[in-house]
Amino acid sequence: MLTLKAAGLLDVDSGEIIRPGVIRVEGDRIVGVGGSADPSAETLDLGDLILLPGLMDMEVNLLMGGRGENPGLSQVQDDPPTRVLRAVGNARRTLRAGFTTVRNLGLFVKTGGYLLDVALGKAIDAGWIEGPRVVPAGHAITPTGGHLDPTMFAAFMPGVLELTVEEGIANGVDEIRKAVRYQIKHGAQLIKVCCSGGVMSLTGEAGAQHYSDEELRVIVDEAHRRGLRVAAHTHGAEAVKHAVACGIDCIEHGFLMDDEAIAMLVEHDRFLVTTRRLAEAMDVSKAPPVLQAKAAEMFPKARTSIKAAYEAGVKIAVGTDAPAIPHGRNADELVTLVEWGMPPTAVLRAATATAAELINATDRGRLAEGLLADIIGVPGDPLSDITVTQNVKFVMKGGQVYVNKN
């Protein structure tokens, strides 16, 4: 048994720092919290650090971005092995930033049908490489020309790099059923769907609904019958309302939500994943003028909609949309949320306990006996200075220490 001794630890539920911070770990689990350290037991003294549950990012794409990528050419240059190898570095940076669980939320690249995020998660779980626990979505389900149809981003001519139904391009109920079933068959643990346009869409307004209600209900039906939740890339208020009415479990982004859409999220007990940092940090300077204009209109609305959602009582979970912000800079999202009006306690809960609820994980998200020993240490009180989460000094995942800079 190993005892961690620190200046304090965060009780996520009460929103208080308990001092001192003493946690006993055996194997991959927490077996005791609080009290005093046993001088006869093996003790790791972490000095002035404050211990937190491992943070969680509910929207990343570890197979995209990172060192060596040329975003303008990656669709035609990066084969699946290259993407997986680059993801090794992205996963390592994410874990060492204190994020011990992520949802890899939808491949939208040519893979030949392979679910690269499933393979990445298996390699991490096997201990071959360092990285967070990965909850994979496989390929994002999107209509032809939808926001997550990758040939749309580059405005390719017809016939260039077209994706298959298995790779998520699905139209009509029969193709959609096949696409969803394919992801589930090969290891997806949730389904990602493109419900509306986006900032970088070349095919229409960001808020425009892409799938019909009938098609959305089919996606939900297939996923829910197999016990999986559905996450929907959705910006527009009307698209959010339709997604919620059709049974979508989680809205990604929601920049353009209005009060009615927010009220529906609360009434139906649905989740919202934040991704607000990209509204400040995403570089659109080289994008076509029409996309720059769209970003200039949308990004300011992201600030007001997240504050309104929090004040209304929406279940909020932290997500970054990395690499929209760089892998390893995930905690920047927490800082932005505090700057935009959410209390630090609520933000930390969104990155831990609420995120765990979103993925139906009862074994993480808190520092409590019986839960996974996913524990990080930061150099100060995050309730008074959330920026300490950008400087993680200690990372343990499953009882194994990956970072100890104390």
TrEMBL record:
<dbReference type="InterPro" id="IPR006680">
    <property type="entry name" value="Amidohydro-rel"/>
</dbReference>
<dbReference type="InterPro" id="IPR057744">
    <property type="entry name" value="OTAase-like"/>
</dbReference>
<protein>
    <submittedName>
        <fullName>Amidohydrolase family protein</fullName>
    </submittedName>
</protein>
<dbReference type="InterPro" id="IPR032466">
    <property type="entry name" value="Metal_Hydrolase"/>
</dbReference>
<keyword id="KW-0378">Hydrolase</keyword>
<feature type="domain" description="Amidohydrolase-related">
    <location>
        <begin position="50"/>
        <end position="401"/>
    </location>
</feature>
<dbReference type="GO" id="GO:0016810">
    <property type="term" value="F:hydrolase activity, acting on carbon-nitrogen (but not peptide) bonds"/>
</dbReference>
<dbReference type="InterPro" id="IPR011059">
    <property type="entry name" value="Metal-dep_hydrolase_composite"/>
</dbReference>
<dbReference type="InterPro" id="IPR051781">
    <property type="entry name" value="Metallo-dep_Hydrolase"/>
</dbReference>
<dbReference type="Pfam" id="PF01979">
    <property type="entry name" value="Amidohydro_1"/>
</dbReference>
